[in-house]
Amino acid sequence: MDREEIIDALSQYFAVKELVCDHTYAKHGEKSWQFLDTDWLHCLLIIRRDILKVPMTCNQSTAHQRGLRCNMCDLVKSKKANYLSAHILGKAGDFTVKGMNAGKARQEIMLKAHLLPCKIRLEGGVSWLHFDVLPQYGVTEKVYVFHV
User: Fold this and answer.
1) Which residues neighbour 55 within 8 Å (Cβ) at sequence distance 6 or greater?
2) Model pLDDT for residues 8-26, shown as the tens digit of each residue
């Protein structure tokens, strides 16, 4: 699939406003797709449509920095040291999965890793589903679980 096909298919499940911070959407609106990594979008589509097959929520009424984060976001501005998160690179998102806890969602993704178009990272030990496509040098697993 090319990028436009991925975005078109993903639009059935997510509005771009759900995947980027409020600052980005306020400035760029529907053009905000341009800041999201193609591999990440493709993996999000596969995870939502083909692996978990249930609604997933990224940004919501009480949390607005779970997808792309910009330099104006509190989570970024509060950092005292260099901060190069996959979130600021448009390569990550934190999700709530309907009817499934994060551990079960991670398990399902690992069981069906062969469906993913590239390697991903999952954050373990947290109550949300974080996945990203930030390359990890020396890691050969299709799905790599990391802990912060």
Assistant:
1) 13, 97, 98
2) 999 999 999 999 999 999 9
